[in-house]
Design goal:
It is a single chain. By secondary structure, the chain is an alpha/beta fold. 39% of the residues lie in helices and 14% in strands. The chain has helices spanning 3-19, 22-27, 164-167, 192-197, 204-285, 300-305, 346-358, 390-395, 415-435, 471-477, 484-489, 494-510, 527-536, 546-549, 555-568, 579-588, 608-618; strands spanning 44-46, 52-56, 79-81, 88-90, 102-104, 109-113, 126-128, 133-136, 148-150, 155-159, 179-181, 289-290, 308-314, 317-323, 332-338, 368-373, 378-383, 398-399, 408-409, 450-452, 458-460. A 6-stranded mixed beta sheet has the order 1-2-3-5-7-9, with no helix packed on it. The chain has a 6-stranded antiparallel beta sheet with strand order 12-16-17-15-14-13. The longest helix has 82 residues, at 204-285. It is globular. The relative contact order is 0.05. The structure holds adenosine-5'-triphosphate. Adenosine-5'-triphosphate binds next to strand 13. InterPro entries: Kinase-like_dom_sf, Leu-rich_rpt, LRR_dom_sf, PRK1-6/SRF4-like, Prot_kinase_dom, Protein_kinase_ATP_BS, Ser-Thr/Tyr_kinase_cat_dom.
């Protein structure tokens, strides 16, 4: 392979050593960046001639101090995205990466100044450095290509340069830098601490007087200093001879001592190796614990060695799909690397996990296969759900025909499939509410946690984990904590799960993303408010996803499900139904036999849904 590719591979290996991440340590093993074998270089994008073009390692809990030239050996790099890690060091020198278009280093622990060398990146389109500890002034960015810029939540100082490009961004791009001033920030430059440094004209006279005084004082100090240095020099000269003699003796002693010290250091290093070995052995002794009668078909090492694909980062940490080929029964498994948990002892963790697998035996709950616990690593291993999650099924378009890029569509998601999802989730939630104690049995019911297995059976994931999450994180990220009761009196209960179920039903019926469970970066709608508004403003026919609303024979069932959804979403928890009641009503909705019966006239205003829905929403929503 060419010298350049070797250089790039070596630079990746340096990064690997810096991050020292157990997953990357086992995954980054390729000879060099092959476009065809991305799994050997997780997060690395390669060009067709095998150069590194992108480094995309977001939210992986990476640590380590990145050196200034860590990226200098990737001349083809167009993207660096390391956001939401804990990487420290200065903002790296990227002046030799002329092709860079996107830099996202936000949410790390970077410090020091933003390097002016970034000004030489003429193709730069986005620069995101927010949520770090950067200091100093903002360089005068003026690349016309720059469309996204964010340096908020740092400690940057001084006036924002008046270049047209920097002035075109909103104040949000600069917020929370107390010593940054001038437009577009909301902090005027003549105020507060800033004014002391960048003095106004009226202060200039005073300051020049002060400068004069200081100059005289400095002159006196200089003279005194000079005399002192001369005296010291004479003293030094006198003692030099004595010192020379002492040095000679010392060198002799040192030589003898050095031999002894070397031997000591060697012994110390050997001792350290033994400790590390012992620790490694201790970890190895801890094995994957298989639960629920699952046969131990693979070991921890197999998981680490298996080709892995990142599925995403959730509230508990990163989730990977690992392909274990050659094992009977299980082909792919999902590994959740638990991070950001409440501090837990081995016993507490095991108790919680036992609670999960003791109750996993329900056809609509995703079974836990195994778990692993050590001080540094906590893993949960689940069965891989072949047909993905409900969020993607509802919202994501896929290529209709392989190879035809323009023809994109959704996998058909007919009324009967949606009804069976509503039923499966209701049954799973009822089971959790009846069988698992605790205040919030699920706590995070949303469409990315509803999975479809190889038989299209709906399985709910992430149950039994809510009590592992610390309250500040739970209140930011878990769906139950978005409920009206948590907003008003900071309390959640099983009824918060019922509310989440109502939101999920509305997502299922409308095919709109719910604001309460939208994945990061995706905007959603407050669906309950939106449905009520749709009725009030008489565009009721638009509530339902056209894909199902044209199945006219199912309209009664759809209205019934909408009624249940709104009842579950009632602002007052006491007025919401129990899940047992919900299951009863959802089970009673008739499955329409013929799915082909469609209203081909395409006139939505003629739909019975638009006549019945207002009465239902305005009137009694009880089940
Ligand atoms: N067993 C599984 N089979 C298939 N896909 C899964 C499985 N478990 C999780 N996923 C998918 O992997 C992705 C990441 O999951 P993860 O649970 O880490 O985060 P999340 O569901 O997006 O958020 P949260 O942690 O808040 O629930 C999601 O898209 C999820 O649907």
């Amino acid at each position: 392979i060419s010298e350049y590719l070797v250089q790039e591979r070596d630079a990746l290996l340096v990064l690997k050593a810096i991050f020292n991440d157990p997953f990357l340590n086992t995954n980054w093993t390729g000879l060099h960046c092959y476009a065809d074998y991305p799994s050997q270089w997780y997060g690395i994008q390669c060009s067709h001639d095998d150069h590194v073009t992108g480094i995309s390692l977001q939210s992986m809990g990476l640590t380590g101090k990145v050196s200034a030239n860590a990226f200098a050996y990737f001349p083809e790099l167009t993207l660096i995205s390391l956001n939401n890690n804990s990487i420290s060091g200065n903002v790296v020198n990227l002046s030799s990466n002329h092709k860079l278009k996107h830099i996202d280093l936000s949410g790390n622990r970077l410090y020091g100044q933003i390097l002016p060398s970034l000004l030489s990146l003429h193709l730069l389109e986005s620069l995101q450095l927010q949520d770090n500890s950067l200091t100093g002034p903002i360089p005068e960015f003026n690349q016309s290509s720059l469309k996204v810029f964010n340096v908020s939540n740092n400690n940057l100082k001084g006036p924002i340069p008046t270049t047209p490009v920097l002035q075109s961004f909103s104040s949000a791009s600069y917020s929370n830098n107390p010593e940054l001033c001038g437009p577009p920030s909301e902090n005027p430059c003549n105020s507060s601490a800033f004014s002391e440094k960048y003095t106004s004209d009226s202060d200039n006279k005073d300051s020049s007087k002060r400068t004069c005084k200081f100059a005289t004082m400095f002159l006196i100090f200089d003279v005194i200093g000079l005399v002192a240095v001369m005296l010291l020099f004479i003293l030094y000269y006198k003692r030099a001879k004595k010192l020379k003699k002492m040095m000679k003796n010392m060198q002799k002693d040192l030589k003898e001592d050095g031999e002894e010290a070397e031997a000591e250091a060697e012994a110390e290093a050997e001792e350290r190796v033994v400790v590390v070995e012992e620790k490694r052995e201790e970890n190895n002794k801890k094995k994957l614990i298989f639960v629920g009668g699952v046969e131990a078909e693979f070991e921890l090492n197999d998981l680490f060695k298996a080709p892995a694909e990142g599925l995403g980062k959730g509230i508990f940490g990163n989730t990977y799909k690992a392909k274990l080929e050659g094992y009977m029964g299980v082909k792919s498994v999902v590994v959740k690397r638990l991070r950001d948990l409440k501090p837990l002892s081995d016993e507490e963790f095991t108790k919680q996990v036992n609670m999960i697998h003791e109750h996993h035996n329900h056809p609509n709950l995703l079974p836990l296969l195994a778990y692993y616990y050590s001080k540094d690593e906590k893993l949960l291993v689940y069965k891989y759900a072949e047909n993905g999650n409900l969020f993607n099924r509802i919202h994501v378009l896929v290529s209709k025909y392989a190879g035809e890029k323009s023809s994109k569509d959704r996998i058909p998601f007919r009324w009967s499939s949606r009804l069976s999802v509503a039923r499966g989730v209701a049954r799973a939630l009822e089971y959790l509410h009846i069988n698992i104690g605790g205040i919030v049995p699920h706590g995070n019911l949303k469409s990315t946690n509803i999975l479809l297995d190889e038989h299209e059976t709906v399985v709910v994931s992430d149950y039994g984990l809510s009590s592992l999450v610390a309250l500040p994180i739970a209140s930011q990220r878990m769906v139950s904590y978005k409920s009206p009761e948590y907003q008003s009196n900071k309390r959640v209960s099983r009824k918060s799960d019922v509310w989440s179920y109502g939101c999920l039903l509305l997502e299922l019926l409308t095919s709109r993303v719910s604001v309460h469970s939208a994945p990061p970066g995706i905007n959603g709608v407050d669906l309950s408010t939106w449905v009520h508004r749709a009725v009030r403003e008489e565009w009721t026919a638009e509530i339902f996803d056209p894909e199902i609303s044209k199945q006219r024979s199912a309209s009664h069932g759809m209205l019934k499900l909408l009624q249940i959804a709104l009842h579950c979403c009632d602002k007052s928890p006491d007025k919401r139904p129990e899940m047992t009641e919900v299951v009863r009503v959802v089970e009673n909705i008739k499955v329409v036999e013929s799915e082909d019966e469609e209203d081909l006239s395409g006139d939505p205003s003629d739909d019975s849904l638009s006549i019945t829905a207002p009465a239902m929403v305005a009137g009694d929503q009880r089940l």
